[in-house]
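Protein: Nicotinate dehydrogenase subunit A
Species: Paraburkholderia haematera
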Amino acid sequence: MGISITVNGKRHLLTVAADSPLLYVLRNDLQLNGPKFGCGEAQCGACTVMVGNDATRSCVFPVGAVGAARVTTIEGLGHGEQFHALQKAFLAEQAAQCGYCSSGMLMAAKALLERIPDPDPATIRRELAGQKCRCGAHNRIVRAIQRAAQELRG
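Structure follows.
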């Protein structure tokens, strides 16, 4: 079946089943390896991408449900000299240890900051509670999100 989706600003026409998980299409068909396969059950958040303005667990989200929404992965957030404020803050705060959760954490943080531009630490922890980080970088992640929020507000 032909599915047309826009990922990171680029339109793609794919021959995939509509019920294929978005994560599989991103990784296998589009070679976008930023979103990670963690649990496959929408429990860990390693696969989080933006579908429209929503942080979405792509491991259980059918590609056919994307519709006209734009998909943004970590590859579309920023790169090279054009890092997003969140990416710069994660680097400055050393908010990644193993890095496996980082792309999902960054995408969830982007969705958070779009909804709540000036979150306090308790709000950040509550909003990102579903994003699992096993190496214990949570305090650094919270500081990084606060730093990015400040930069984005000017």
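Remarks: The first strand starts at residue 2 and ends at 7.
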